[in-house]
Every structure is written in structure tokens, then in C-alpha cells.
């Protein structure tokens, strides 16, 4: 199966679009930081901007994705992504091709996991030693170098297996247990993976968080410090 290029992308979107009643369909790859697909439409005309992280996707993956997108445009919001799309986006191949590009596009993050006061790899090692997580050599953990106005523990990308923690936690005043839990919460999010739908993600995420001993105490301490899940 050939990999996708602009011509294949347009062909897949055009074929799916015609079957869904559109007369003019355009599509192009765009260099978004995050993985996404945007469209603009007017009556029977529609134009797509597709994340260039899919530039090397097999043609059958693009074709399947196109069918799902048009189903959602028709109002079928619960349409699931196909197994082939999920398998590709969760694959080692996809990660190796795109993680480095994603990190270059992500401005305002540290070069390493070491902050001014806290090395996040120490937190990661403690979690692994306690059996709460399995060591993942592909997981990237960084500090945000700018303040997070949302006051969240951090943010994470499931597809790029990347975690960026709030610099408010880079302090000797943050207890290890609270810091470890904050990182654990982001690892759990990454480990949800990319599934056909997100219907059960919230329930699965809560089940993961509940496995952390002392979750309630850690969340209480983090709220006291002004950050939250």
C-alpha cells in the first residue's frame, strides 16, 4: 500500500465528498502543532486542512479517515474511527516519524526533564519503582517554560506520547507525593491511547487515577498549591 501524498489526500477526500453530495472538494496538508483536521464549507463546496503528521499515512488509512470525517459532517458525531486508523495513529511508525517534529513546533518547553528544582525523571523513576507505571522509552517529559494560566498540573499528547508539566510544580515546596501524583495523572492520560471513540475515556481515566495510593491527599495538597487536575 502506497503512502499518502497531496494527490492521494485530495483523491480520498474528493471520492468521499462526492458520495456525500459535495461537488467541489479540496484538501491540503497543514503544519499544525497539534494533530487536527479543519474544514470550511459552503453548500456543496468544502475545503480541508489536514495535519501533515499524516503525510506518510497509508492510503487506506486516509480513505478510512475521510469516510469518518464525512459521517461526522453529516451529523453522525458518534461515528467511530476505524481499526486501521487507530492502529496507525498508535503505531511506533507514526510516533517515530512525528514526535520530533511535534517537539520542534511546541514552543515554550524545556529541553530536558530537569527543572530549576525538580527533575521529572526522578518522579518517573519513583512511579516505576512502585509499580504504578511501566517504563516507556518513547515517553517525553518536559517542563513548560511559561506560566500555565489554566493552573492545570500539565498537558499531554496521547499521539505524541509527550507530557509538559506546569512550572508551578518546579519547586522544593511541592511534596514528592503530590508531584509524583501530578505526573502520574498525565501518564494515565497518555496511556489511554487513541481509540475509535472517546465515550469511555473519562471512566477509564478515573479507574487509572484511583489506583494511585493517597490520591485524595495528593489532590488536596495540589489544590492548596493552586493547581488542579
Task: Output the strand order for the largest sheet.
Answer: 1-3-2
Q: Specify the biggest β-sheet.
A: 3 strands, mixed
Task: State mean pLDDT (0 to 100 scale).
Answer: 93
Q: Spans with pLDDT under 50 lasting ≥5 residues? A: none
β-strand number? 6
Succession of helices and strands: HEEEHHHHEEEHHH
Fraction of helical residues: 40-55%
Q: If helices are DSSP runs of H or I spanning 4 or more residues, what is the number of helices?
A: 8
What's the architecture of the largest domain in CATH terms?
A: 2-Layer Sandwich
Cα gyration radius (Å): 20 Å
Indicate the overall shape: elongated
User: Which homologous superfamily in CATH is the superfamily of the largest domain?
Assistant: Metalloproteases ("zincins"), catalytic domain
Distance between the termini: 42 Å
Content-based structural category: alpha/beta
According to CATH, the fold-level topology of the largest domain is Zincin-like
Number of domains: 2
The CATH top-level class label of the largest domain:
Alpha Beta
How would you describe this protein?
The protein has 229 residues and is α/β, with parallel strands linked by helices. The chain folds into two domains: 6-80, 2-Layer Sandwich (Zincin-like), CATH 3.30.2010; 104-224, 2-Layer Sandwich (Zincin-like), CATH 3.30.2010.10. The protein has eight helices and six strands, in the order H-E-E-E-H-H-H-H-E-E-E-H-H-H. The protein has helices at residues 6-19, 59-73, 83-89, 92-105, 120-129, 176-191, 201-209, 215-224; strands at 24-30, 37-42, 45-51, 140-143, 154-157, 162-165. The strands form two sheets. A three-stranded mixed beta sheet has the order 1-3-2, with helices on one face. Helix 5 (120-129) crosses helix 6. The N and C termini lie far apart (42 Å). The mean pLDDT is 93.
Amino acid at each position: 500500500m502506497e503512502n499518502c501524498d497531496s494527490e492521494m489526500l485530495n483523491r480520498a477526500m474528493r471520492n468521499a465528498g462526492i458520495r456525500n453530495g459535495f461537488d467541489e472538494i479540496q484538501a491540503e496538508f497543514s503544519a499544525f502543532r497539534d494533530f487536527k483536521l479543519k474544514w470550511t464549507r459552503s453548500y456543496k463546496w468544502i475545503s480541508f486542512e489536514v495535519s501533515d503528521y499524516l503525510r506518510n499515512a497509508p492510503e487506506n488509512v486516509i480513505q478510512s479517515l475521510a469516510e469518518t470525517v464525512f459521517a461526522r459532517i453529516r451529523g453522525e458525531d458518534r461515528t467511530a474511527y476505524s481499526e486501521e486508523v487507530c492502529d496507525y495513529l498508535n503505531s511506533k511508525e507514526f510516533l517515530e516519524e512525528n514526535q520530533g517534529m511535534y517537539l520542534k513546533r511546541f514552543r515554550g518547553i524545556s529541553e530536558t526533564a530537569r527543572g530549576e528544582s525538580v527533575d521529572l525523571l526522578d518522579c518517573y523513576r519513583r512511579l516505576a519503582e512502585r509499580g504504578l507505571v511501566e517504563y516507556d522509552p518513547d515517553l517525553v517529559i518536559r517542563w513548560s517554560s511559561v506560566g500555565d494560566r489554566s493552573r492545570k498540573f500539565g498537558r499531554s499528547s496521547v499521539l505524541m506520547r509527550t507530557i509538559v508539566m506546569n512550572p508551578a510544580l518546579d519547586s522544593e515546596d511541592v511534596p514528592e507525593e503530590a508531584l509524583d501524583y501530578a505526573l502520574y495523572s498525565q501518564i494515565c492520560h497518555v496511556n489511554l491511547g487513541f481509540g475509535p471513540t472517546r465515550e469511555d475515556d473519562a471512566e477509564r481515566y478515573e479507574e487509572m487515577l484511583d489506583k494511585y495510593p493517597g490520591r485524595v491527599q495528593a489532590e488536596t495538597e495540589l489544590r492548596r498549591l493552586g493547581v488542579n487536575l
